[in-house]
Here is the input.
Amino acid sequence: MSKSTNATLPFLLLLTTAVALLAPIATHSQNRISPRHPSVAYLQEWGFMVGSGLPCKPTWGEEFGRSIIPVGDVNGDAIADFLIERKRCDSAFGVDGLTKGNELLLYYGVKGGLPATSSGQRIGISEVGSRTYFLSVGDYDADSYFDIVCGVEHYADTTGGNNWEYQTGRAIIFWGNAEGKYRLSDTTQLPCDAPIWIAPSRGLTIDANADGIDDIAIVGAGFGFGNGAIRNIASIYIYHGKSGSRLGHDGKAATADQRWWNPPEYNWVEWLDQDCDGVKDMVFHDKGSLVEKIHIAYGNPQTGWIDTNDIQSIDTWQANGRFILFQDVTGDAVKDLVMIGGDFTNGRIKVFAGKPGQRLIEQYGDGRDSADRANERFPLRPWAQIMLPNALHDGWFGAEHVLFDLGDMNNDGTSEVVAHTYPYIIIYTTGSTIDSLIDILYNIPDESWGTLRRLGDIDGTGDISYGATWQGRVHFLKAPPQDEIPTYGGNVRELPHPFEFRCQHTTDVEQQPSEIQQMELTQQQKLVPTTHTHHR
Here is the structure.
C-alpha cells in the first residue's frame, strides 16, 4: 500500500474522528464507530522459539519465555542479543517439593534468522535449585563490554540463619568480555548492610555521579537478613562504576557509594530527564490496586546528582488514571506523560505534553483540566486524548490498564502509543496529529501472554524486532512496512515551541543504549510490572 493511499482519507472520516476527539467525554459508547483506521496495518510475525524439551515431571511443563529482555550487542557482532527467562520442569525443591528452578538464557542475535533454542548460554550460579532473574545491564567498568547484573536466590542458602522462611538473595555482576561469555568465575557480589538481602527486586543503570560511567542502582524492600532475623537496610543502594576497574576487583571495593533509606513508594523505577534540563531524574511509579501515583526526584544541574529533597508527586485518582508512561510522542525529545484510564465503557488515553523547564505538577495539574486553547489556558494538559475502542464501539472489550513502550515504529521520530484490548495489541501513531483510530493491530489468540518488548535488531536486517510469549512459544514480530502504516487523521495540535524544536539535551532520544538503560524493571523494561490481567 502506498503512502498516497494512507494520506487520502475520506473527508467524512476525518470529520468524524475530529468530532470524536473534541466532543465532551460521554458516559456511554458512541454509535458503533469503527475504531480501526480504514488502512489499518498489522504487526508481522517472522519467527518463534520453543522450549528446550526438558524431561518434565508429570503435569509440569517448561515455562520458556517467562520474560524476554533486550541486552544490546554483548558479543560485538553488531547484532542485538537478548535474554529469555525460563522455569525448569525437571526438578523440584523446597520444603513442599514444588519450587522450580528459574534461569536466564542468553541468546546471541543471528544474521537473517533466530538462534537455536539449544544455543542459549545459562547465566547464574551452578546450582539448578536456584532462581536467577534480571536486574540491569550496562558497562560498569567502561571497557566497552556489557555487564549483566542478576538477582540470585539459592534455595538451600542458610546464610544468616535462614531456613526457608524468608526469600533471601544476592545481587551479582556477571562481567562482560570480548567473547560475550559470562562466567561464574568472573563475578562480583554487591553487598548490602546485612549478611544477605531480602531478595533485591529491581535494578537500574544510571549515572549517579555524572562522570559519564554507568553506575548500578539496586532497589529492594529495605530489608536484609542476619542472625535469624530481618534487618532494616537502605531501600536503594548505588554502586559507582569506574573506568578500568571492576567493583570488588583490582583494589576497588564493592561497597555501596550511596544509599537512599526512605525513597518514595514505588513498584518500578525509571531514570530519565523529565524536564529537559540535561540532568537525569529518578521516576518512581507507585501503582496501587486502582490508580497510579508518580514521584520524581530531580537531578541537580549544579552537581549532576539526584536531590532527594527535591521531589514532586502527583496522584491520578481524581482523573481515574490507571497507568502512566513517559514517552516522546511529539518528536521534540521532551518526555510527554501518557496516561491510560477511565472506566470500562469510557476509556481514554491522555497525552500531557512536555516542554523544557516544565516539571511534573505543572505538566499534569490534577489530570482533569479542559484545554482552553482560545485563551491559551493549559494547552498541554491534556494536549491530546485518544478514545479507546470500547468508547467508540460497544462490540469491543475495555482496554487493560497498561501501556507498552515500543518506541518509534514508523521512523518518524516519535514513539507510538501502544495498549491492549483483548484479543488485540492496538497501536496509535503519533506526532502533530493524534486520533482515536487504530493504525497498527495484532491479534494475540490467548488470554495469557507475556508482555511485549522491543528487542532491537536481533537478525541483522536493520529492522527492529519485538517479542512476546503465548501458547508456549516466544513469538518475534516486526512493524509493517513504513508506507503501509497510516499516519494521517485528527486535528493538528500545536506545541508551545515549533515542531522542529528538539530539546538540546537528547540523552533520552531513542537509541540502542537507551533501550538498555530504560529497560523495564520487573525483571527490569520499561520491564513494566505485571499489572496486566492477560500477561505474566
Remarks:
- The mean pLDDT is 85.
- The longest strand covers residues 63-72.
